């Protein structure tokens, strides 16, 4: 399994403003920066997009992506999202004012995008992957993801404060290799992290301890304005299985 945290900024000092993961080249977890990645022809290899929750940094370039890939990959792309996310996208984005009503529109008898409603507790099979959806603890309803193929499993909890169920499920998942977990705010902003239901480095390490097996934790979602401080606070723990995820690097498990 190959997991790439897609970049969302340019230059030597890259920072994460938007969130998207590319899995095996054909599945995207969130679409924050998906529509800006590489060329439209390369984007067209993505056949399935899962959106974790309604916050803009996790779907911001979905409209651009759908324009880029329409009619380029045979069948339409499938968008997988909860009822709450789909309702928000229909009312707030694809509403005929901000953007055309792509979730309902057709062109020459073909849909712009297929839509699949998903929910916590469900497992979806796409492109040789089994993706189990687990509710996590964020300020809006949010789904985390346990991804499995025949050789490995990877957990992407999405945005969350301290949570429980996804770690319980992860511990029961065979071949667990890695977790891509957020560490958004520095420790001195723990109060803000509590209100916004994000993790600090201290909180990140506590979540690591909920997984009993020795897997690698990749820190993601570091606040752009506090990236260096958050990274330093994480690395100060000197944990051999804690790494800061690199943008654009394909991690293979």
In helices, the fraction of residues equals 10-25%
Number of domains: 1
Overall 3D shape: globular
Terminal Cα span? 5 Å
CATH superfamily: Ribonuclease Z/Hydroxyacylglutathione hydrolase-like
- Strands of the widest sheet, in order across it, are 8-5-4-3-2-1-16
Helix/strand-derived class? alpha/beta
- Strand portion: 25-35%
Notes on the structure:
The protein is of the alpha/beta class and 253 residues long. 21% of the residues lie in helices and 26% in strands. The protein has one domain (2-252): 4-Layer Sandwich (Metallo-beta-lactamase, Chain A). The protein has helices spanning 40-43, 62-69, 83-93, 165-171, 190-196, 201-208, 227-235; strands at residues 2-5, 21-23, 27-29, 48-50, 78-81, 106-107, 110-111, 114-117, 123-126, 129-136, 142-148, 153-156, 176-182, 216-220, 242-244, 250-252. The chain has a seven-stranded mixed beta sheet with strand order 8-5-4-3-2-1-16. A seven-stranded mixed beta sheet has the order 9-10-11-12-13-14-15, covered by helices on one side. α6 packs across α7. The chain is globular and about 55 Å long.
Short descriptors:
alpha/beta, 253 residues, 26% strand, 7 helices, Metallo-beta-lactamase, Chain A, 16 strands
Give the gist of this structure.
This protein has helices spanning 40-43, 62-69, 83-93, 165-171, 190-196, 201-208, 227-235, and strands spanning 2-5, 21-23, 27-29, 48-50, 78-81, 106-107, 110-111, 114-117, 123-126, 129-136, 142-148, 153-156, 176-182, 216-220, 242-244, 250-252. With 253 residues, it is an alpha/beta fold. The strands form three sheets. Strands 8-5-4-3-2-1-16 form a seven-stranded mixed β-sheet. Strands 9-10-11-12-13-14-15 form a seven-stranded mixed β-sheet, with helices on one face. A two-stranded antiparallel sheet has the order 6-7.
